[in-house]
Write a structure and sequence with these properties.
318 residues; alpha+beta; Arc Repressor Mutant, subunit A; 4-stranded antiparallel β-sheet; two-stranded antiparallel sheet; 11 helices; BRO_N_domain; Bro-N domain-containing protein
């Protein structure tokens, strides 16, 4: 009776083809991998499906990967007494597939990049059927260290596919790097423009505040003709009366402090709306709305217009 074959200890195990090269040849990408103490390899199903172009990983697994070749991260690691890898991308319920599951997904994939690997797999099956086994060629240069495992040469068609894919990925990486640099430059320019806009807005606001403060000072220090020193000025009285008549907003007040001194000193306002807009920083439409509001609340009244079409306003004296 034949004795049962003994499984090699983990220390004696070695792989004919590096698993990273094998997976890269199959998928065209460096897929995340978990290697268990028994030498088995597991891969996140979502990574493999995304790389191979499967739009619905769950359906791809149900259609192409047997249940024995897929499991959850928690079950796979727990079976070996290992902890869940750190990081948000390693969830307990993450679906994993083993190497056979990965190969099944590759064989079902129609992407041209998978074709060299699929051709090699077909060649392996044909050779095994014809000769009973398939052997890789040993590499030309073997490790010199005593007891080191033998190195095997990658099958030519698979090695060529890896070289082509690596070269393509390097080109893509360089293009992405150029695009990222361009994007960062655009972002810097946009930030600089935003800062310049904010600075201009602050400058305008400060200028308006200085004008308002100056006019308030003039209102306090200017004395109406014939009034006793220290008496309340006509300009101050007008502005106070306007504040009492209506809820003065910032734009109305900006117009009020410009037109009130003219009305007090000359008795009437004969200035085009465009000129008032330029002096207040408001639009012509908003200047007209503010004047209409002052008329509505009996602060000013209209007295026709000038020969050039500018409106004429006077104070509405009781």
């Amino acid at each position: 009776m034949n004795e049962p074959s003994k499984r090699p200890r983990p220390a004696e195990r070695h792989e004919a083809i590096d698993i990273s090269d094998f997976v890269y040849a199959a998928t065209g990408a460096r897929i995340r991998r978990l290697t268990m103490p028994d030498g088995s390899h597991w891969f996140p199903a979502v990574d493999v499906c995304k790389r191979l172009g499967y739009t619905t990983p769950r359906k791809a697994l149900l259609d192409h990967v047997p249940e024995a070749n897929r499991d959850s991260l928690e079950t796979v690691t727990g079976g070996h007494g290992l902890d869940i890898p750190a990081g948000r991308e390693w969830r307990r319920d993450l679906n994993l597939i083993d190497l056979q599951g990965l190969v099944r997904l590759v064989n079902a994939c129609t992407k041209p990049a998978c074709e060299p690997f699929k051709q090699w797999a077909a060649e392996v099956i044909e050779t095994v059927q014809r000769e009973g086994s398939y052997s890789l060629e040993e590499a030309a240069v073997q490790p010199a260290a005593p007891g080191a495992p033998l190195a095997y040469a990658m099958p030519e068609q698979v090695a060529e596919a890896i070289v082509r894919l690596e070269a393509h990925n390097l080109e893509v990486d360089e293009e992405l790097a150029v695009a990222r640099r361009a994007s960062l430059e655009v972002q810097r320019e946009m930030l600089a423009a935003q800062h310049a806009t904010l600075a201009a807005q602050n400058t305008i606001a400060q200028a308006m505040e200085r004008i308002a403060n100056r006019l308030d000072t003039l209102a306090v220090t200017r004395t109406a003709p014939g009034a006793a020193p220290g008496a309340r000025t006509s300009l101050e009285a007008v502005l106070a009366d306007w504040r009492h008549r209506l809820a003065v907003t910032e734009d109305v007040w900006a117009l009020a402090v410009v037109i009130a001194p003219v009305l007090v000193e000359t008795g009437e306002l004969r200035e085009p709306l465009e000129s008032l807009a330029a002096r207040t920083g408001l639009t012509v439409r908003r200047v007209n709305e503010c004047l209409r509001l002052l008329r509505k609340h009996a602060c000013i009244r209209s007295r026709g217009g000038t020969d050039k079409g500018a409106p004429v306003y006077v104070l509405n004296q009781p």
